[in-house]
Specification:
Ribonucleotide Reductase Protein R1, domain 1, mainly alpha, two-stranded parallel ribbon, 60% helix, 3 domains, binds arginine
Length: 458
């Protein structure tokens, strides 16, 4: 049942057949291939290449095949080289010789590119929904912590206090950009290659724009050679999923830290943690770790497709068959990781007491002293220096910044009058941050309102 063979004296060697076969993974494209076949059949009929009866019979057979594929009654065999071969066999089984008419003007080269675009555009919508669900879980957690003080870190060292809701929202913005990227990707992916044939277009009076329209594409190809060579839509999709993977990994890494004994900022729900086969006390953040770990394969998928493409001469080359498994794997991987992360985030408990205790640790209010001096006209360069000396004194004495006596403050600098202590609380540091996008409770509430609306739009 091969789609080729007329010029060959022998059949393919077993080793070739085994290398060449793709039906075990490209079978996922079956229903999209059938949709494209319906559109192609109508165009052949419009061109007078199928009479109305033939069109009716072919469409009925495609519908029947579609159901058989969906219910699993029709399955590919190991003899079928790829999804296109298997489906042509299904059509021939239903229609006899008439089934062979549908291949006119069409090549697997334009077919496979069309099928993969249809498949990815369809699955990108489901992926977007899963991303939006995670964004919503984070946003809902953030809503409960708009004025929960927490330590803010740079270099994993205590830097300046923040509110924990701000931190959680900082993980939502990358996801919103991922959603934007998917939407933007779809605009470029919405070009139909069908009608490009093997590479040269068709000598038959086909109608690529009509096919494009029927299949929900924005337009049809402008260049038949580009149409069958272009895998930008695959590489771009894999970039979006790789970057999403990186975002999920960074979130995962933070949850691993937050749930450690040393931090103890967050407690995960039992249902979203795992235990140990030997240590009865263990409660591990495996979801967070798997999110972090699976970023590797998402990045790998992008690298493998870019590398596969980089040396390919136009137009179609068989190397391109390697474009599918990475995107299928990316979609499968994310559809496991995203719901698990969403469940983990929405059920986690934030340890407000531990966060509050940690917020002023590590002289994290030192910048407040420097800013206070600046408001008193001390140049920031000197203010930084003076505050640094105060920090050094406290480090030696093992005390906090506001525990230094008035005399000692004055010894560090005459600018340091006792009322500097007003700025040495976490709540005053947070309240001072009123500019848009800052971590003060006011701007965070504003930000939350905007983000909530953006998340709900999905
Ligand atoms: N299975 C191939 C692919 O996925 C499509 C077949 C094109 N084959 C060919 N010999 N031109 O890329």
């Amino acid at each position: 049942m091969r789609l080729w063979g007329g010029r060959f004296e022998t059949g393919p060697a077993e080793a070739l057949a085994r290398l060449s076969v793709s039906v075990h993974f490209d079978w996922r494209l079956a229903r999209y291939d059938i949709a494209a076949s319906r559109a192609h059949a109508r165009v052949l009929a419009a061109a007078g290449l199928l009479d109305p009866d033939e069109l009716g019979e072919i469409l009925a057979a495609l519908d029947d095949l579609d159901v058989a594929v969906e219910t699993g009654q029709f399955r590919p065999t190991i003899e079928d080289e790829d999804v296109h071969t298997a489906l042509e066999r299904g059509l021939l089984e239903r229609l006899g010789a008439l089934g062979g008419k549908l291949r006119a003007g069409r090549s697997r080269n334009d077919q496979v590119a069309t099928d993969l675009r249809l498949y990815l555009r369809d699955h990108a919508r489901g992926l977007a929904q899963q991303i939006a669900d995670l964004a919503q879980a984070l946003t809902e957690q953030a809503a409960g912590h708009v004025d929960t003080p927490a330590p803010g870190l740079t270099h994993v060292q205590h830097a300046q206090p923040v509110v924990f809701g701000h931190w959680l929202l900082a993980h939502v913005h990358p996801l919103l950009r991922d959603l934007d990227r998917l939407r933007d990707w779809d605009v470029r992916a919405a070009v139909s290659p069908l009608g490009a044939g093997a590479l040269a277009g068709s000598g038959l009076p086909l109608d690529p724009p009509a096919v494009a329209k029927e299949l929900g594409f924005r337009e049809s190809f402008a260049n038949s050679m580009d149409a069958v060579s272009d895998r930008d839509f695959v590489a771009e999709f894999l970039f979006v999923t790789a970057l999403l993977g990186v975002h999920l990994s960074r979130l995962g890494e933070e949850v691993v830290l937050w749930t450690s004994h040393e931090f103890g900022w967050v407690e995960l729900d039992d249902a979203f943690t795992t235990g140990s086969s030997i240590m009865p006390q263990k409660k591990n953040a495996d979801i967070a770790e798997l999110a972090r770990g699976k970023a590797g394969r998402l990045i790998g998928g992008l690298v493998s497709v870019l590398t596969m493409l980089k040396g390919l001469p136009l137009t179609y080359d068989r190397d391109m068959q390697e474009d599918k498994e990475p995107v299928f794997d990316a979609i499968d991987t994310l559809s496991l990781v995203l719901p698990a992360l969403t469940g983990m985030i929405s059920t986690m408990t934030v340890r407000v007491d531990r966060l509050a205790k940690a917020a002023p640790v590590g002289f994290s209010l030192a910048t407040e002293v420097a800013d206070w001096l600046v408001r008193r006209s001390v140049p920031f360069r000197s203010a930084h220096e003076i505050t640094g000396q105060l920090v050094a004194l406290c480090a030696v004495r093992e005390c906090e910044l506001d525990e230094v006596s008035d005399d000692d403050l004055a010894k560090v600098s005459p600018h340091l009058t006792p009322d500097v202590r007003q700025v040495l609380t976490v709540s005053s540091a947070l309240a001072a941050r009123t500019t848009p996008g800052s971590t003060g409770p006011g701007p965070v509430a504003d930000q939350l309102a905007v983000v909530t609306e953006q998340v709900q739009k999905w």
